[in-house]
Amino acid sequence: MAAHDSLIPLLGGVDPEQLVSVRELPARDAVHSPWPAWVHPEVVEAYQARGIVEPWKHQSAAADAAHAGSHVVIATGTASGKSLSYQLPVLDAIHRSALEERVSLEPTGAVALYLSPTKALAADQLSAISSLGLATVRADTYDGDTDSGARRWIRDHANLVLANPDMLHYGILPNHTWWARFFRRLTYVIVDEAHSYRGVFGSHVANLLRRLRRVCAYYGADPVFIGASATSAAPAESFGKLIGTPVQAFTEDTSPHGSTTVAFWEPQLTDLRGENGARQRRTVIAETSDLLANLVSAQVRTIAFIKSRRGAESIAANTKRLLSEVDPTLPARVAAYRSGYLPEERRQLEGALRSGRLLGVASTSALELGIDITGLDAVLVAGWPGTRASLLQQIGRAGRSGQDALAAFVASDDPLDTYLVHHPEAVFDVGVEATVFDPANPYVLGPHLCAAAAELPLTVEDLPLFGETAPALLAQLVDQGLLRNRPAGWFWTHPQSAAGMVNLRADGGGPINIIESETGTVLGTMDSPQSHYQAHTGAVYVHQGQSYVVEELNEQDHCAIVTRSNPDYYTQARDVTQIEVISELRNTSWGPIRVCFGEVKVTTQVISFQRKAFVSNEILGEEPLELGARDLFTKSVWFECDNRLLESSGISAADLPGALHAAEHAAIGLLPLVASSDRWDIGGVSTALHADTGLPTIFVYDGHPGGAGFAERGFEAAKTWLGATAEAIRSCECHTGCPSCVQSPKCGNRNNPLSKHGALTLLSMLLAQAPDGEPAPGKDMSGGQSSFH
């Protein structure tokens, strides 16, 4: 019996209406390779004692290149053993030099630095390395939880330090003199989950790694960088851009994997009506809960992935309720897993999942990143996880032990999800997305230049490391009084910490402290640009599973006062936007249509928020807000339409605003198809007559100061992007437009006017004018008001 026939009925019957398409991923046999001759026999014995008889071919090839001194990136699928690829050269160098230290009694041997985006992943790596039992390896984690006594021991004695970018930025580089002994001996730097460094975060980490390389050079070290990444487009180019130097990529996956049946599942439209009377689909949370309950009741070990913590908790709770009606012993075998749990809680859940005590887990991406879980039979992905790389990581969690597996992508109310369930080839038959980030973003690079100058005065010789824009930016920093220029270089002369100017995981604006009203406890911080959307009065704020309602946003004192609560709804802010073109940087012509990319000023005002039922998405109410407008200087792609062409296509002046507005909403939703963005990383504006272009215009812009690279990627892949946008609208079975195609959850105009038919006509007209291939980079050029957002 085919895998399709035997596994699909487990989801919900023989031929469920929600099943749109199915893709079979064939099984893959292992290709082994002998242990590299240079690996110390005792290191080989340690791995063999753990049951690893010999490595897979790609592991040996990558390890050979790193051992020979090349910067490398291993970009293969989940469960492909990327960790062995970097552990072999690292542990061999540490083991050999530690043996030599015993003879010389001098701490002169090799050391290595491991960087991961999360503490949990570093802890998992430490556990794996410790299990090898190599007494020569002194490994330890160095993060915000490390006490002061342990920190000094790690600096002085550890030869493998496991940290995260935040600790490297705040704790290690500013205090590099304390780490001098470590930096002199630094031989390898491992950058795990390298594909996760994208957008503004990736831009920050790229500059952080340049600062690391500069400090290493000061101490006479030139470490080999080894990246471990999920499959991504041009991994050598992406990782090379991240570390600032050329690298060699290894992309052939020679690890074994069982066959996987991937179902593309679209929840049905219900009789519930949303904004403007649009029919609503059954929510992804309710649908995924049903599927997880079906699989667990059939004794199928399953993970359900969803992006939000609250979603993971809701799926677990709903599944338990459904199972209690079938078998009272089953609810105890389902749990939620997300960040925010204590380490011992996470380890307990991981152990229960490995052993089979747990049959079902609803998880955020915390279980996607490298945590070693084997023996799973099925994976559910609730809503698009953000990138193809993430989807492939998640569905690759099943079948790792060689058995046939089942995966299902469950579409949420989103144009991209609508497109993908109807076009599985867009997931499996094209390359995965490029990892998009921009180290030259002045809002990111400027503070890093200050931090670098505080670590060591910047010299002319340092400037190529930070790119072509660094000299001009340094001049601006001198004019602002942040740096002083002397014959020996640029100096940081302020008493405060330069590293404090940088927030690696955000875009600046000063943090807002989230304070609990009853105890005065600071629960966390939020970046100022996001506070109007997520910390306005009445907003629901979730911290480590506990819900709070914002009582007051005090921007003057940089705090939001919250009260513990347990609402059965979530909140979404709505805004109105105007956009002004500052300068055109690139352009191309599609006949009479101009496609442009450039710098813009976006003025946004949050005007209200909606309360929505968490399970059904029903709108429970809307409240006005009185918040000031904010300006954002960023980058945008825009499309200037020709009025005569619009008229000849049948779009009347009365229909034009709704057609532009609907096309803009859908395009925002589909941009992640070609750029590794999240829908909330980008914004858009459309107008029937823009003051700067004088024409009907659609803008889609990066929601971060200086830009994040997403809009530029949209310009470069405009034809693919708009083609998918049109197809997503066409594929949706609604009649006049709904959240799955042209409605936006953050539209300040309450999704009015919108014309689904007009958007399809408009996009078809644009695509008919597009030349073959994507727009080529245009020449540099120099360069309003909006109606709808």
TrEMBL record:
Protein name as annotated: DEAD/DEAH box helicase
UniProt KW keywords: ATP-binding, Helicase, Hydrolase, Nucleotide-binding
CDD domains assigned: DEXHc_Hrq1-like, SF2_C_Hrq
Residue ranges of every copy of the Helicase ATP-binding domain listed in the record: 63-250
Organism domain of life: Bacteria
InterPro entries referenced in this protein's UniProt entry, alphabetically: DEAD/DEAH_box_helicase_dom, Helicase_ATP-bd, Helicase_C-like, Helicase_put_actinobac, HRQ1_WHD, MZB, P-loop_NTPase
Start and end residues of each Helicase C-terminal domain: 290-443
